[in-house]
Records
---
Amino acid sequence: MSNNNNWLEKILPAIRKSDNDSRRTNIPEGLWRKCPRCEGVLYRPELERNLEVCPKCEHHLRIPARRRLALFLDETPQTEIGADIGPVDRLKFKDTKKYKDRITAAQKSTGETDALIVLRGKVNGLPLVAAAFEFNFMGGSMGSVVGERFIQAVDVCLENKLPFVCFAASGGARMQEALFSLMQMARTSAALQKMRDAGLPFFSVLTDPVYGGVSASLAMLGDINIAEPGALIGFAGPRVIEQTVRQKLPEGFQRSEFLLDHGAIDMIVSRHDMRETIYRLLAGLTHAPLAS
Amino acid sequence: MNPNFLEFEQPIAELEAKIEELRLVGSGSKVNISDEIAKLQEKNLSLTESIFKNLTPWQISQLSRHPRRPYFLDYIRRMFGEFDELHGDRTFSDDAAIMGGITRLDDKPVMIIGHQKGRSTKDKVRRNFGMPKPEGYRKALRLMEMAERFKLPILTFIDTPGAFPGIDAEERGQSEAIARNLMVMSKLKTPIIATVIGEGGSGGALAIGVCDHLQMLQYSTYSVISPEGCASILWRSADKAPDAAEAMGLTAGRLNDLGIVDEVIQEPLGGAHRDHDHAALRVKESLAKALERLQTLSTEDLVDQRYKRLLSYSNVSRKSAEE
């Protein structure tokens, strides 16, 4: 902003200006974060200790897939599944940007190759496979790679008789892969049928947000569906619904609590209790003795 | 402008109006103008051919929702024997946007299920413009499971803008209803043939679209999101729908090239809406042929092949192990 000819700058209260300046210079970058819900200013190290849950209002902030899995799994052993699989732009899709460039940019900013990470590991010694969507990778959208890794995860479960836990966070199908992305809904759902046929549990954990093609396939097909508090979960987005029905949406519409009320999920579990709750339920369904 | 014709069909509409006018004049006078009419009809034919030779994906999208395009009920009347419609999801309601019931294809009893748009304004509203709610998908599932129990093949007909984006649909678990259909359809022990007759709109279409044989009418579309929806998200302007239609490759021909669609059913010249009887005849022929092929398979092979088909819908690269 040029100071010389910006009249607005001149009439801004001097104190506000200097306040901004001092914040910019005196506080190290990224040490503070604003809670998107209560707008409380949070000290990052404290937030991290609290598993990215706002200590003031209990709002569950979005977290990267690797962090999610690290919080969930025992430290060792962990082996990644499907890391060798990468995206392909079969349709040469181009909107305002090329899909190829979007992939490259997403890979750079997240350090991941696509939007689903799958690890084989243990929770309190109980062996399982866990997957998590990386929302920062093109909105956690599901294309062929996500579908393929999900199916590989199921295959490992089938081969080794393991339970499968998936943490969803996704805007839906990846439009840039057009009908192939729609077909991932059918593929992942068909794979989950195999889990059922084999008598292996699949848990779906819904974290903010889960919409569209991911919601209308794998994410709603858990033997047990668990949501984090306050997550937005639905098929159609609120804006689309509002435009279609021309009606104000009810308070709390499509939040976890709304889904629990309407019978769509089994329970809402705080991030702090997630690991132990899932462990207990899985141990119950698989008749495993509880670790003390 | 004739509202029963799309913009690019207007020259055809004008020529046909002219022919009609001549006919009226001709029948009232002694002058023989049949030569003139024949000439114009010939011209109309070549005009239609030239317009339909090079349709853009966006024009095909418009044809797929043409106001006079044959709907599910139009096909039912023309292709099958007596149709006994079955209603209700046994849980909440009956959804008029999805119809289903038992009928016969030639002599074979079959379960048919499809989206139904309304023709009149009143009917459009009653059928919610072909946009199903959870009870529609649950009714479809109930009928499909019944078909499996009684060994009836399932024929589904896809023609929907998409699942209904409404408050009530969300409250009753739209996502779960669609997801469950996808899961259960993958293992049904009876042949499933899906035919896209108009709009194949996203999850709302796929929820009755998991199948052993997927066929599309020449001017039908099948996509993950409507061109308008895609354009407003990726281009931030619904006006870019023609670009989105192009980019998504949602036409029967393109999807056939990509290996997702097994068969493209040619439509009569000028589109299915120009000749419902002929369109229905062609669909029926394809159905009979596909069904005959599928019924030679054992149940085990059928379900196994269905899963393998699904697995093949994927484009990924694989790094070699040592990298």
Note: Chain B has 14 helices and nine strands.
---
Amino acid sequence: MHIVVCIKQVPDSAQIRVHPVTNTIMRQGVPTIINPYDLFALEEALRLKDRLGASVTALCMGPPTASESLRKALTFGADRAVLLTDRYFAGSDTLATSYALSMALTKIGEEFGTPEIVFTGKQTIDGDTAQVGPGIASRLKLNQLTYISKIVATDLEAGRITVERRAETGTQVLATKLPVLITMLEATNEMRRGTIAQALEAARAEIITWNASDVGIEDLTKCGLRGSPTIVKKVFAPTARSEAAAMIEAEGTMDAKARAVVDAIFARAPGVEDDLTAQALHHYV
Amino acid sequence: MADAAKPAPTKGGRANTKKELPEHFKAYKHVWVAVEIEHGAVHSVSFELLGEGRKLADKRGVELAAVLMGDDREALGKAAQDCFEYGADCVYIACDPALKHYRNETSTQVLTDIVNTYQPEILLLGATNLGRDLAGSVATTLKTGLTADSTELAIDEDGSLAATRPTFGGSLLCTIFTLNFRPQMATVRPRVMAMPEREEGRSGRIVEFTPNIAEDDVVTKVLDFIADRDSDKAALPYADVVVAGGLGLGSVENFQLVKDLAAVLGAEYGGSRPLVQKGWITSDRQIGQTGKTIRPRLYIAAGISGAIQHRVGVEGADLILAINTDPKAPIFEFAHLGIVADAVTLLPALTEAFARRLRVTRMAS
Ligand SMILES: Cc1cc2nc3c(=O)[nH]c(=O)nc-3n(C[C@H](O)[C@H](O)[C@H](O)COP(=O)(O)OP(=O)(O)OC[C@H]3O[C@@H](n4cnc5c(N)ncnc54)[C@H](O)[C@@H]3O)c2cc1C
Ligand SMILES: Nc1ncnc2c1ncn2[C@@H]1O[C@H](COP(=O)(O)O)[C@@H](O)[C@H]1O
């Protein structure tokens, strides 16, 4: 079995700061990481590999420096890493990204065997759209399984897979045919550490690097900014609220302070007090 | 969406140009909401979107329509009435046994077919698991633009949809347009938009759409559905009162103080993201940009610093009370009421004070 996991290299946004005057992102020194959500996808792929003996390819579209994240994926246990990089991809939105990735996936299929499963994370922490996975599935006509919390069974002979999917009000158990695209839910597993041997091997491993023409993209208007139907016209900082909080300055015991807080709340929201009282009545009747 | 990090080029690309809308796209008219129905129930986010869609349609001088997909014609008829009362002028109904449960395959096909037949200019969906699953496939199939998780929708001077959404983990906002493609698609998370007033007895036009699908051809089968137990359901987005805790509580044991206060207030409880990472609370109780958006009448935040990612999830609250030991904590910049105090000692006192107060008012009434 062949499994491909799409991973994105993202800035560690916990460490991003916005310049207070110019409202631009201060990127200097912000470290990059593998999109945290993608680690759940990668770990799930590695678990299938442990169970069923699959080979796992990690695929990333990004600048040349994204090879760092791919190398990391190799140290965790991926067998192969493909970097899709080209200046024509700059500024891609989800439609252009899913186009480029689906072309790379087709090429991966030709070179290394058609994948039975393509994994993506639930979403990225920078784009944060959760749309690239569904986009790839639609383009490659893969059966789409999003928000998967558990892979219940994989029957390679019959070409079937059964999964649990997080729906809005419960869990769906779905069965479908391979090949599939799975977007993995967060907190479904925990990334392994990888062995020292794997780390040593990963350090020396070749990162397969392809550009647009390598994956058969002839029409560059489908890529990057030109291939993106959405256009970012304006980027701005959220407006600060004009007034700061009214501070409750109560002296004395905690009980006195607590009473002051309750008074302040109900003074501002008398309706809430009425409803809470009614609700409490209802509760005790 | 486009990566806002990259500066828009001034030459080449399309970023600063606006080509005349191609002739065949001029036929695209009206604002649509794809309504989310799961297990017979319409998700409130769809009504919130109808409220917002109404404003957009009025601004454009066009109709507002809702799309309903399901297998029970009678239930769909009831839902259609709800949609009219929440502002729709027209409802498209696709009824077929294969649409009993939500599945990407069937819903994508049916929704794409209806869009291609009746050609809306704007198509809105909820940014729920279902809506995000469907929107991505539909947008890719239609080869059009999609702005995910929008927090604000407006009509620009030239009549295009301007969808604003957070970027860079909420540190910045960006406004996104889909100028040369139709429909313009956007998803919006539950509770980001206010629930519209219901207009009893309002009615409209129903258009039946015959889906071109057959269960036998559908590859993906639903084997089972395990509904959440009530106790597992965090009704956070729709709660009237929410009490939440943050890292300032210091320990998972102290988090119990949040639950105690919530119990007295009949409130839902939640927390900041680090608490989920520490395993103090489950992920469906996380409040904020990557968790739930809430709009309670009262929000009590104890030991939460008020990072921008937390703030965007609670800004719709009518009244925010912040408890924090640090007078400079950012939460005091957007809370309405604040108290500099140790939440670990104040919370139990507050629980007691609320209980007493409610008992007294109850006796008096
Ligand atoms: C992409 C991304 C998405 C994110 N999404 C979310 C999200 O959806 N929701 C979310 O909440 N966060 C989110 N975050 C994390 C966010 O940036 C903050 O790190 C987080 O909200 C901080 O949580 P906190 O306020 O509990 O902890 P801290 O920031 O550590 O704040 C603790 C506060 O408690 C106060 N305190 C300490 N002791 C006491 C005491 N005894 N009594 C009272 N106060 C006390 C301190 O003064 C401090 O203000 C996200 C981050 C990123 C990068
Ligand atoms: N540039 C990229 N390279 C590889 N995978 C990506 C890329 N962008 C998005 N993905 C995958 O698509 C998922 C959803 O991304 P998004 O739609 O940006 O939230 C991510 O979790 C990744 O698995």
Note: Residues 76 and 157 of chain A are 28 Å apart (CA to CA).
